Fold this sequence. Notes:
Bound molecules: adenosine-5'-diphosphate, magnesium ion
Strand content: 15-25%
Strand order of the largest sheet: 5-4-3-6-2-1-7-8
Amino acid sequence: MPIRVLPPEVAGKIAAGEVVERPASVVKELLENSIDAGATDIRVEIREGGRRLIRVADNGSGIPDTEVTLAFARHATSKLKDVEDLDRIATLGFRGEALASIASVSQVTVLTRPRGQSMGQHLQVDAGKVIRQEGRGSPAGTVVTVEHLFRSVPARLKFLRQPQTETGHIHIAITRYALAYPEIRFSLTADARKTFQSSGSGELYDVLIAVYGLDVAEKTIEVASARESEQADDVKVGTSAPPPCLVHGYASTPALHRANRTYITFFVNRRWIQDRSLAHAVAQAYHTLLPVGRHPLAVILLSMDPAEVDVNVHPTKREVKFRNSRGVFSAVQSAVRHALIDRSPVPVLAHSPQTWPAPDWERRQSLVSAGRGEQDPAQLVMELYRPDDQPLVGPVRLPLLRVVGQVGQTYIVAEGPQGMYLIDQHAAHERILYEQMMAEHEQESVTSQTLLEPLHLDLDPALAGQLGEHLSFLNDVGFIVEPFGGTSYLVRAVPSILVVPDVRTALVDILEFLRQGDDPLAAQAEERLVAAVCKRAAIKAGQTLTNEEMQHLVRQLEQCESPRTCPHGRPTVLHFSVEQLEKEFGRR
Length: 588
Ligand code: ADP
Ligand code: MG
């Protein structure tokens, strides 16, 4: 084909793909516009997860009648005028792309009136073209209605998840802005039911309660960077450079933790951002305070000179670049660490590190000798018949192994005919449970256990969406879960392997794992669910195992079809061959 410039509709749709990924992206852009317009009350209404309808109504500045058509042109914005402005962006929007992008993949209606104008404007745009404009009576502010999102983009429509899941994403988008703007009242009405409301009191703590509930909010402490006077003293005596930003927010006490880092939320100059390195800074502040593999909940707001941060990195503006990223990292880490030490109700300094404690030599000695005694000649013969020289691809069975001991409360050391094996106890147990559960599932014989008392779960809409989407699968793999109205569910039974003291947390964790694999192209939903259950039910790293427990685990792993990897594809076993050991020790 010859090279040619794409017609504007096609170029528009391609560009829109970057900005409008799913209904929640539309909500995010419209919220940003309302906030930029100075609104103090923003009401969001959606139907069918936003696919049928998204409406955002605000009491902000409104759009002057002479400009309302222009608002839909690509790169049309009232927030920037020249290149220099790009270096000091103080608004959430600036690319002038959102309305144009949204309008090119849906039907948009705008009703808007600036306070100083007596008559409002009503504008209808279909697939990017203005099809009607007329004067109309209207309250001061702007109402944008988006209907039939992606109707003209079947590729996108196909990737939309169930309405409950999309509603969950929208809920998250709104709660993020509510946290960043406590002085604005936000509400979400989904299918005629109000599911979220913030008070607009101006207090971050009030929003924390509205978003996460009182139980969670009570387990958080306030985070604030050192008082400015203290910082000034430090700078005077030359102990530190002035930090590039001020930090404030809330972080969980060590008593509250979650299965992943999605509950660590950052805002830079009140813009929500994603930043792995900063999440790591927060996690580091909790070093040794949380159980292995658990993560804190935190809401951290950074304020800094706009010239210190580049927000023009990503079309959706969710990634930023800091001029002094190291300074920002340490400001966040030290603010959180200080809060934990100064304000935590737990005597944190008294905690001893939980990883890699000194080995218990006596116990170790007994493990080693017990292992030796266990090796019988019959087993040795079997080992010789199952040499382990196959390449490490595909489902390769394990040889019979002799357990030697445990390292770091995490790895099992074992000996086989071809050398030494290190087994990750968690990954291995996950694999074992996974194969057992899948086999039981195929024969429709998953064993479940009825709870003494049904468990009442009241979930946030995002998790409720996950649960709703997987309800029938959950019931197939041994849960008995029933909808209980709205975002509530009743759990009557759980798979037998999941009989743990805290079923509620276990179930929330499983829904979280499922959400992380939120990829429509990932493996079957059913397998993902089973894998998530097994991940939760498996022995954790950092857990001391008796010799019998290790033997049992290794025996079961030997029986597995694909013993070499966990259900998520990580290795369960590392093999150090005799040759390798001899070479390393210079015997060859
Ligand atoms: P950007 O926000 O990057 O400027 P948008 O396409 O989102 O680009 O919006 C274009 C323009 O329309 C904005 O610059 C603003 O002037 C106007 N606008 C959009 N939504 C609103 C609103 N809710 N209230 C007032 N003005 C708005
Ligand atoms: Mg905008």
